[in-house]
Design a protein that fits this description.
With about 190 residues, the protein is an alpha+beta fold. It has one domain. The protein is built from 4 helices and 13 strands. The strands form 3 sheets. The protein has a 6-stranded mixed beta sheet with strand order 2-3-6-7-5-4. Strands 8-11-12-1-13 form a 5-stranded mixed beta sheet. Strands 9-10 form a two-stranded antiparallel sheet. Strand 6 and strand 7 (about 95-100) form a beta hairpin. The protein is globular, with a radius of gyration of 16 Å. The termini are close together.
Amino acid sequence: MRFWHLDIDFNSDGSSPWDALWHDGDDSDFDALFGQMKLSAFWHPPHLRLERRIRQPDVYGFNLFFVVTNKVMKLFSDIKSDDIEFLPIRTSPARRLFIMHPLSRVDLDYNASCGVHMPRDNIVEVDKWVFPQRVLNTKLHVFQVYQAPGSAARDAGFPLDQVFVSEMIKQKFDSNQVRGIKFLPVSE
């Protein structure tokens, strides 16, 4: 199975034509989203400020997360609820948007190549993404990657910030012309 890394579709100069979301509070307000526990039972939708720009996306980049429209959320309707949940947010001006909360995590394969780091250090750069064969043979369609075993980030429950999706999800996004996102290939 082939996997793709989700990224925001920036202009070639690194600027963004897409509407943006901002939180005026503390970034730690969103730390629970780094965990694997379902949050929907006690989630209190945070208020985000919407900044209008040239184009309106279907997928917004927000801090280290993705916020999606109802259209995008429906594209995930046949994915197991144990893999992902969508949590509502409030915006000004009002829009119906949801933070994408991936619940599944996998370890990198030993053949993956990470930037120079000592054992037990947090992974800050991955040069070559390789997933274990058992992951490639599953029906996993959206996930994040665990930090290095023994690292402070892993012990605190933080994954690497990238979100990965399967070929099936990419095809759904492409065929429905989802705006604001691009896919970077990471595995064969």
